[in-house]
Write a structure and sequence with these properties.
Layout: E1 2-6, E2 11-16, E3 21-26, H1 32-46, E4 51-56, H2 63-67, H3 70-78, H4 87-92, E5 95-101, H5 109-115, H6 119-123, E6 131-138, H7 145-159, E7 162-163, H8 172-175, E8 184-186, H9 194-214
Parallel strand pairs: 3-4, 3-5, 5-6, 6-7, 6-8
Antiparallel strand pairs: 1-2
Bound molecules: flavin mononucleotide.
Residues 28-33, 101-105, 137-140, 143-144, 187 line the site of flavin mononucleotide (FMN).
Length: 216
């Protein structure tokens, strides 16, 4: 936040909101969460973020498992050069938006493995006060979206991060299924609809706005 002191009015006036640095971090096996993360990146830029990084979580599954799912195999081959997240991205960001599929109501091991490398940052207090928010997908309408986000948020709580859920802060959220924990979608192999896109964009903008206020 940038202030100008006005001697005559004897008050401080906010002139320019601080522009938070935003990392959008996703794991995706078949593209759904990549799409959600892409929309979040667009919205963060539209909301006035200073800089936005879109990074994927490194694939760690054995090739034998990947080869058994043609969609997964195709996604991995097409995105092998897409930039992967590292610890510097976490330290750099003021706000972090995650997008992750469910795995039996939990986080994918790929994302959990990345979190398991953050102990050094955590013990140095470098993850405290990060502004965070999460999005997710599952193959079924009630296949574990909320529990996956709660699994994500448990780690955020241990970091001392500041979770910004969408709640019911905009009518568009009801059109997207009304998940107050984070934007979520039933993944069916198709690009999620505009109702989901709107919810993602609202959530990302809200996260950037909150980060701007907290960094002031
Ligand atoms: C090991 C495994 C476990 C899964 N568990 C569930 C589940 O419990 N409920 C569900 O609805 N979908 C489940 N899914 C489906 C994924 O959540 C779905 O493929 C994912 O949300 C698609 O996101 P992506 O395209 O970004 O990879 C599972 C998929 C895998 C591979």
């Amino acid at each position: 936040m940038f202030y100008i002191y006005n001697e005559r009015l004897i008050n401080f006036k906010v002139l320019i909101m601080n522009k938070p640095k935003v990392a959008v971090i996703f794991y995706s096996a078949t593209g759904t969460n990549h799409q959600l993360a892409h929309w979040a990146m667009e919205a963060a830029k539209e909301a006035g973020a200073g800089e936005v990084r879109l990074k994927r979580v490194q694939e760690t599954a054995p090739q034998q498992a990947i080869d058994q799912n043609q969609d997964w195999k195709k996604y991995v081959e097409e995105h092998k050069d897409f930039p992967t997240v590292n610890l510097d991205d976490l330290q750099w960001a003021d706000a972090i938006i995650f997008s992750t599929p469910t795995r039996y109501g939990n986080l994918p091991s790929q994302l959990q493995a990345f979190f398991d490398t953050t102990g050094g940052l955590w013990s140095a207090g470098k993850l405290a006060n990060k502004v965070v928010s999460g999005m997710t997908s599952a193959a079924n309408p009630h296949g574990g979206q909320e529990t996956t986000l709660m699994s994500l948020y448990k780690t955020m709580i241990h970091w001392g991060a500041i979770i910004v859920p969408p709640g019911y802060t905009d009518p568009c959220l009801f059109e997207a299924g009304g998940n107050p924990y984070g934007a979520s979608v039933k993944a069916d192999g198709n690009t999620p609809g505009d109702n989901i896109k709107n919810a993602v964009k609202h959530q990302a903008k809200r996260t950037v706005e909150m980060a701007g206020k907290l960094n002031g």
